[in-house]
């Protein structure tokens, strides 16, 4: 005789946690988009756009904020 237990499979995190994780991933992706580009087509020509404030300040800040959001999403209580 085998007895089957009615076990409901639950996710590790709640719906709110997953939404916050998606927001964090979007912020990280946005940071990498801002960091992209600025190169030159001709390797003999130096392009000053590589030192744009967007690539030096904004993009790394967005990535760090996104990582903070991800940490918060992991640690947030899924019941609330």
Architecture overview:
The chain is mainly alpha-helical and 80 residues long. The chain has a domain at 24-40 and 51-80. Helix content is 55%, strand content 0%. The chain has two helices and no strands. The two termini are 41 Å apart. 6% of the residues are buried. The model has no long low-confidence stretch (mean pLDDT 88).
Order of helices and strands: HH
Major sheet details: none
Secondary-structure content class: mainly alpha
Span from first to last CA?
41 Å
How much of the sequence is in beta strands? under 5%
Helix content: 55-70%
Low-confidence stretches: none
Counting DSSP H or I runs of 4 or more residues, the number of helices is 2
Mean pLDDT: 88
Instruction: Find the count of extended strands (DSSP E, 2+ residues).
Output: 0
Report the C-alpha radius of gyration, rounded.
Answer: 21 Å
| Overall shape | elongated
In short:
The protein is mainly α. Helices cover 55% and strands 0% of the residues.
């Amino acid at each position: 005789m085998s007895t089957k237990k009615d076990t409901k499979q639950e996710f590790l995190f709640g719906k709110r946690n997953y939404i916050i994780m998606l927001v964090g991933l979007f912020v990280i992706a946005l940071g990498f988009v801002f960091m992209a580009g600025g190169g030159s087509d001709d390797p003999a020509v130096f392009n000053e756009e590589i030192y744009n404030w967007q690539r030096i300040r904004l993009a790394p800040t967005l990535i760090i904020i996104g990582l903070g959001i991800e940490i918060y999403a992991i640690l947030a209580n899924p019941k609330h």
